[in-house]
Please model this.
Amino acid sequence: MTRKPHPTRPSGGRGGREPGCRITLDLSHPGPPISPLLFGHNLEHTRQSMWKGLAAELLANRKFAGEGLATDREGNPYPKNTPGPDGVAAHWFAIGGRAARFALDAAHPFAAGHSQRVTAASGRTGGIGQRGIPLRGGARYAVRLHLRADRKVRVTARVAGPPGRKACAEESLTLRPGGWREWAFSFKAPRADSTARLEITFEGPAALWLGAASLLPADHFHGMRRDVIELLKEISAPVLRWPGGNFTRDYRWREGLLPVDRRPPILSRYYHTLALSGNWDFHEVGIDEFVALCGEIGAEPAITINLDAAAAPPEDAAAWVEYCNGSPATKWGKVRAARGHRKPYGVKWWFVGNEIYGSWMGPAHSDAATYARRIGDYARAMKKADPSIALIASGTFWDGAGPWDETVLAHGGAHFDLLSEHHYAGEGTAHARRADPEDFARLSREPAGRVLDFLRVARERADRLAPPGRRIGLTFDEWNVWHDWFGSPFDHEWHVGPADAAHVASMLNMLCREAAALDLRMACFFEPVNEGCIAVDGRRARLTAAGQVFALYRPHQGGRLVPLEGPAPDSSIDACASLSRDRRRLHVTLVNRDAAGPQNVEIALAGAAARGKAAARLLAARDLRPDVPLAARSARVAVEKGTVLRLTVPRWGIALVTVPLGGAPAARR
Model:
């Protein structure tokens, strides 16, 4: 994921109102299966996808990282997470006033490059605290603290709500001088509170060091939020691409094998990737947690490796493959088995870097010829660890990279199996907190226009330049609407609304219709948590308008594509149809791309007839402001003689029509 140059906007428009749209579906000759992998998602560590998103951790800067110094697009320093002038780590406050002294101490590190030291004078109280912790009433929470002291001292930890109310929890521990000690306790929150605070105090004379702190809901799943995971199941994410994107330039997978409190925070050196968490990721999700998440939601894991040759040479990538896929008899398979995972993870999909053509990738960046050579080095090492894996090379749509795909295919095509392509639609005014019907119309038309043209060019290029005898497939593993706030996250912290939903619905229709012709093996939306499908706050999570569309479109996954005649590519209605695996149900998805008003749709069935009542589920916008979910309701579908269906798709509407067929359609000879 990166800040891309804005593509030229299409002239687009609402299109003319039509008296009606007619679609003919030939059920006697179904097309190829629709791969569930077309409905994948990126799970990149960006902005608030992990922190205040999927990760259940409630404490900010919990490992006391110092200033996170990244660079902006022009290479200028972009500092975040700066400690306070009193020497207290960012997001924490001092307790003790002038009787206490504070510093980030590099001489006594724990997980970060230093710890938080507090020194209190004799008979005086010192400590630190953090405010704004969201608690759910009646829920249980677990606290972990890693402490050390220079002498015997009694430490008190207190979780408190508003002044005047009894504390949620108050525990004490006698700490003796020596090394680091872990202190853990739990409590039940008596009431909901979004302003709770954690305070850690002691009485001097003494010096206390804090290495890491954690406050988690007790029902977390490997450090991740249960409510977010349930919504990932609801949208059905059959593949997750992880850990990025841009984030991979700074990622070190082996650090994820350490205990979670000991993992060093990861400094993202490209300014907008983690701007909302101080340029730091605190590594709550490592490889084992990621694979556990995939197992929980039924997703295939897809991994992007760091291509910084100095920090992550080919041998490091091969070790990662062996850790995931090797038997317990191999070096790294033995490590995995010793950690309680004897059965190999079987990770098939491996991306050999991300957007390597871009300077934003830092040390991994190179020109196309260098990248083509490096692919061979990584491919040989990784396939030696597991010959069955599929390697995906980084392609580009950016003109500034020159003939990137051509060079990579011609000189490196013998070493990879698929070529990765990315595309973001220009946002227009979709990021603004106001309605704009033009955005709905334009963004819903772009997938069947410019995006499809872009993918067809990539297919033609791969066919023309791949080595003799090799078929290079495509992946479309980053797509979305590009919003200004991706690059300036404090300007517009949320953006997803009905215009985004229209783009998602039309994109999924197009991918289902065209994937076979394009030999498109995988597509991944960017991204599910807090930037697309799921909106998360301290105590709850919900589907956005885009998430509602992914949930609505689930029936297409694994179905058989049904050929359709009409509507025209520039019609006000965009459509896709599929047969269920048992061929007893027909599913049709429709998008009204005409922002001017409702559209009447007639669907004629050939080769089979409806048996029983057809049903329609509608998602429709009340208005087009971001953050507004779509209203869901059922709609009437008229059925005539079992072969003609009629319904109305409202303005700003998306529909799923389900038709029982009563038996497998007869195949046409």
